[in-house]
């Protein structure tokens, strides 16, 4: 089955710095890669996703890149703000059958003012 | 007007008891899920239903039994609760076809004492 690894487990940055979170997946049939943000005590919410027919996607300060050959995908947050502090999860889902999101282990991002 | 709602939000119970968590979605989605988030924040899929049919059943003890009376509802019943069942349980839903966002409920924090 799919296995998704995520690094780092914690990331501390200063406000205004960039943050990068990396994930690798094992199932070459995976073709959907969403990123979820979970604030303390809240539900996970989608912030950006990428499908395997594109290599990069950007939405304001957030971007995601995908390298299907290497089975890597990454989340980039620029100009970080304290409100970006949360746990971020990557996930992968394969292209056949029913959707099954397999999540990474999460990255706790702390942005200090 | 909550899209995916779970009840109760908090549940404290003694070992050996039986409890249920209810989930409802008003998004018209075909697929619903139960995820377990443990104290380390790992999000693991437990079950998935598509149009009331069980399609994903991960390695979950038989004490856990999901029930979907219709495609808008997916309940989780847990028998003979154990200390290790303490976690946050998230219900989620998605449209049913591949590569789509999953919407999460607010979670149910289950504490077994």
Folded structure, characterized:
The complex is a heterodimer of chains A (113) and B (113). With 113 residues, chain A is mainly β. Chain A has strands at residues 4-7, 10-14, 19-25, 30-38, 45-51, 56-59, 62-67, 72-77, 86-94, 102-103, 107-112. In chain A, strands 2, 4, 5, 9, 10 and 11 form a six-stranded mixed β-sheet that branches. A five-stranded antiparallel β-sheet of chain A has the order 1-3-8-7-6, with no helix packed on it. The N and C termini of chain A lie far apart (41 Å). In chain A, 35% of the residues are buried. Chain B is mainly β and 113 residues long. Helices cover 0% and strands 56% of the residues of chain B. In chain B, the strands form two sheets. In chain B, strands 2, 4, 5, 6, 9, 10 and 11 form a seven-stranded mixed β-sheet that branches. In chain B, a hairpin with an 8-residue loop joins β9 (87-94) and β10. Chain B is globular.
Alpha-carbon distance between the termini of chain B? 33 Å
Number of helical elements of chain B: 0
Give the overall average pLDDT of chain A: 94
Give the low-pLDDT segments of chain B: none
What is the end-to-end distance of chain A?
Answer: 41 Å
The biggest beta sheet of chain A, please? Answer: 6 strands, mixed
Average pLDDT figure of chain B = 93
* Oligomeric state as shown: heterodimer
Q: What profile does the largest beta sheet of chain B have?
A: 7 strands, mixed
What share of the residues of chain B lie within helices? under 10%
- Helical coverage of chain A, percent range: under 10%
- Tell me the number of helical segments of chain A per DSSP (H or I, 4 or more residues long): 0
Strands of chain A, count? 11
Shape estimate of chain B: globular
Radius of gyration of chain A: 14 Å
